[in-house]
Amino acid sequence: MESLERILVEHPFLKDLSPEHVHLIVGCARNIVFEPNKFLFKENEEAHEFYILRSGKVALEIYTPEYGPITIQTIGEGEVLGWSWLIPPYEWNFDGRATELTRAIALDGKCLRGKCEDDHVLGYELMKRLASVFEQRLYAMRLQLLDVYSGTTPKIKK
Amino acid sequence: MNHSIMDPMIPHPYKIQRVIKETHDTFTLELKSIEKNGTFSFAPGQFNMLYIAGIGEVPISISGNPTKNGSLIHTTRAVGTVTKEMAKLKRSDVIGIRGPFGTNWPVKEAEGNDVLLVAGGIGLAPLRPVIYHILSKREYFGKIILLYGTRTPQDILFRKELEKLKSRLDIDIYVTVDRATRAWNGNVGVVTRLIPRAPFDPINTIAMICGPEIMMRYTITEISRRGIASENIYVSVERNMKCGIGLCGHCLYGTEFICKDGPVFRYDQIQNIFGKREF
User: Fold this and answer.
1) What DSSP character marks residue B47?
2) What are B234's strand-pairing partners?
3) How high is the pLDDT of residue B244?
4) What is the pLDDT of residues B155-200, one digit of tens each?
5) Contacts for A10-18 with beta carbons within 8 Å, 24 or more apart?
6) Could you please report the per-residue DSSP string of A106-123?
7) Which residues in chain A are contacts of B120 at CB distance < 8 A?
8) What is the pLDDT of residue B4?
9) What does the pLDDT look like over B135-158, one tens digit per residue?
10) Closest in B181, B185, B190 to A99, CB measured
11) N or C: less crowded end of chain A, CB within 10 Å?
12) Counting Cβ atoms within 10 Å, is residue A113 exposed (0-12), middle (13-18) or buried (19+)?
């Protein structure tokens, strides 16, 4: 537990969080390793965890009947993966597959939700940090949608 | 002597020695002067005007090795009337060249610093001479990091060359694509997402960025967030160009001419107009 606490304290996602709150979060955390091609989660499954990736890479995939699984984004070392644990109905929207050996800290969503309900200051702190992750991912996804490298202007009818 | 000094408006004949199909819509032309004593030297970031008789002329960055004299190399995408015709050219065909024109990447100023190169799509081509230059004088530079984003794994430019470079231990290369199937095991996402993890020292880094303007804008936001000062950021700006020597006014950009005062600009010098719709 002590080493988990040290890892979490040093992670940018939890930077400057009070020691008491880090301690509460550590109570919901566990160390986890995913072999290459192992799924962390699958679409429509219950989202009971989220992950702080320590090394490796995870592909977020959507299955399409025409092309099979399409990778929409990869999440790598140092990044936070998953917010479905926070938003009802607490189900994953994509598949998450480790593309290489991936080490992570898994945080139990149900456990954290309970602690956030009991301690709204902790809840607000976590929500602010997750909002920043949402914002960065949304912004990156908007750029991706622009298809800026295609060399053609999207056809929009006036 | 460079042609631009003799008469910048007269195209000089160059024979195509080789055409390399890079991706489905990009290609490289290796050219050699057919004039007596026709040598060509340039600085990384400069461009030439390429002319096809009866079709037209287009500005294209030089993508070859500036430390080697001999053949002249251009890489471009078949996207407009002239470049689509250019894509049909074959070995031994002749085209006209005027140049080199424009400003260059700050390779001298970058000595003693880490160098961050951020390229998007075909924007890797104008940065390739920088890589050649730096590797020819590797000991003068700190860390070298190339972040490259493109559309799909099939659109990766100079793929074999990048793979070879990646095997060197003195350059960090990160590639990401906007979309991919499982056959691609690399990064998926926009190039800006690579910036937080890139191993450079922000206060001693010179950044050179080339790609679609919107990609450059967001890249500047991210690298500024990491602490690179705007006077250490350089961008290559693209506009329609005609004369190449700042006379016709086609490429006027605020108070600057892209062809003469650019295409490479230090960001703080154009910061007030960069990304603004009016310009």
Assistant:
1) E
2) B208, B266
3) 87
4) 999 999 999 999 998 999 999 999 999 999 999 999 999 999 899 9
5) A11/A52, A11/A78, A11/A105, A12/A78, A13/A52, A13/A80, A13/A129, A13/A133, A14/A129, A17/A125
6) EEEHHHHHHHHHH-HHHH
7) 148-149
8) 54
9) 999 999 999 999 999 999 999 999
10) B185
11) C
12) middle
ipTM exceeding the 0.95 mark: no
Q: Does a cis peptide bond (omega within 30 degrees of 0) precede residue B13?
A: no
For chain B, the residues whose C-beta falls within 8 A of a C-beta of chain A are 25, 77, 79, 120-122, 149-151, 155, 176, 178-182, 184-190, 192-193, 196-197, 211-212, 214-215, 218
Q: Which of B223, B265, B225, B260 is nearest to B244 (CA)?
A: B260
Q: How far apart are CA B233 and CA B215, in angstroms?
A: 14
Residue B18 is encoded by which pair of tokens? Answer: 């080789």
Residues B199, B204: Cα–Cα separation, whole Å: 12
CA-to-CA dists, residue A142 to A128, B189, B190, B209, angstroms: 21, 10, 9, 20
- In tens, the pLDDT along B194-222 reads 999 899 999 999 999 999 999 999 999 99
pTM of the complete model: 0.91
Helix then strand then coil, % of chain B, to nearest 5: 25, 30, 45
Place of tokens 């450079």: B200
